[in-house]
Write a structure and sequence with these properties.
By secondary structure, the protein is of the alpha+beta class. Helix content is about 35%, strand content about 25%.
């Protein structure tokens, strides 16, 4: 996973003409589910929380998007299929929707769809095979790459920009299960819950072992 400060890699993205760029602080709405698409939006820096509203009114967190992800092309009726909220300071490029029909636009959209589908399938497999504490351990380790931590080393301090409820929604758990998992990992000395939206990694290698327990136990119950 690339960090939020990495340059964009896909060559086709570079060829798309950018109308303008926009910068947003953390916890700002980028667009809402069902909102008409005025421009294509490409994340250049930062992380964005994507969610959808379930039929019963509950929110479901679908993905955490990052640099290179492109939005506005997913629905043939030109409506956003997600709500997007910034988790960090974000810079986005705004691109005319007409570009979607150009050869470069078609290639860029195809690349974007393949990348997102691969990510969502991998996330689904992880949820299917891992128990609650394993999911939370893997999530904590993912913070190292996703939110600008330099490396996974003992004592590393990681930002946790999601609330416990948001983590629960993303991992398919209850808030109580997430809180218990954080407390248990802290009790074991693998992490330290420092508060103020941060967690310290104390034993990264052991945390990896917990996260990967499901790989050694194919029949584990979620």
């Amino acid at each position: 996973m690339r960090t939020s400060t990495d340059p964009l890699a896909p060559q086709d993205y570079e060829t798309l003409p950018v109308r303008t760029t926009r910068r947003l602080a953390r916890r700002q709405r980028l667009f809402d589910e069902g909102e008409r698409v005025a421009v294509l939006t490409r994340i250049e820096r930062g992380r964005v929380l994507l969610s959808q509203t379930m039929p019963d009114g509950r929110r479901h967190i679908v993905d955490i998007a990052g640099p290179g992800d492109l939005f506005g092309h997913e629905n043939p009726e030109h409506l956003h299929v997600y709500s997007a909220e910034t988790l960090t300071a974000v810079q986005v490029a705004l691109i005319d929707v007409d570009v979607a029909g150009s050869p470069a636009g078609v290639r860029a959209i195809g690349h974007d769809l393949r990348r997102k589908n691969d990510r969502l399938r991998a996330h689904g497999r992880h949820l299917a095979r891992r128990r609650g504490i394993e999911r939370v351990a893997a999530f904590v380790l993912s913070l190292v790459d996703a939110f600008e931590a330099p490396a996974c080393v003992e004592g590393l301090m990681c930002a946790v920009p999601l609330t416990r409820q948001e983590i629960a929604e993303y991992l398919g758990l209850t808030q109580e299960t997430v809180s218990r998992a954080f407390s248990e990992l802290d009790r074991r000395g693998l992490i330290e819950n420092t508060g103020r939206g941060r967690v310290a990694l104390r034993e990264p290698s052991e945390l990896w072992r917990v996260a990967l327990m499901a790989e050694a136990e194919p029949e584990a119950v979620v």
